[in-house]
UniProtKB/TrEMBL annotation:
It is found in: Cytoplasm. The gene is qseB. Keywords: Cytoplasm, DNA-binding, Phosphoprotein, Transcription, Transcription regulation, Two-component regulatory system. It holds the Pfam family Response_reg. This is DNA-binding response regulator in two-component regulatory system with QseC. The keyword Transcription applies. It comes from Paraburkholderia ribeironis. Residues 2-116 form the Response regulatory domain. PANTHER family: REGULATOR OF RPOS, TRANSCRIPTIONAL REGULATORY PROTEIN QSEB. It comes from the Bacteria. The keyword Transmembrane does not apply. GO terms for biological process: regulation of DNA-templated transcription. The modification 4-aspartylphosphate is found at D51. SMART domains: REC (SM00448), Trans_reg_C (SM00862).
Amino acid sequence: MRLLLVEDDDMIAETVLGAMRRAGYAIDWAADGRAAELSLGNGVYDLVLLDLGLPKKDGIDVLNAYRQSGGAAPVIILTARDAVDERIRGLDTGADDYLIKPFDLDELAARVRALSRRRTGQKQPVYAHGDLTLDPAAHEVTKNGAPLVLVPREFALLQALIEEPTRVFTKAELEEKLYGWGEEVGSNTIEVHVHSLRRKIGADQVVTVRGVGYRLKRC
């Protein structure tokens, strides 16, 4: 999943960005309403975390314009506006959830997971490939029925590969799936993640296509 955080407070933004990245999400950050509209116009986000009191354009106006343009990604409002009428206004404008500042980061992560499961109106599929299974909702991977412990980047890498097991992903495509704007990505970062993932799921499970990228082995 790729998230967009819209938040003008640098300290709050850095805290949320760090928490979501540790949870394995690629997340980008827009610091004002105009930047948010430009970002949302790309149509690449699976979920939006939206502050209301934004410079240049209020969050409610950003949300309204996004829904009016056909934007369908779930939106969680993150705001200090705790009046009931404000919450009603946000939900009526098209928000899917509402969290009052200050909020618990674990609760935010749980709400993100819950909305991601309901994104298509049904539970996310469990992916199976050979002796591997990956359950995005439960954030679990098994090999021959035995659970594997993957760190968030390893899990995100395996999910990208197992969702399209016949496709060869370039390094740039995998970097885009695993990292948000502004995150430092070393020249061999993907190779390091692939090496680490191979140690846990089997060296033959991830195939290197020389000069192109990576895919899962054919079953």
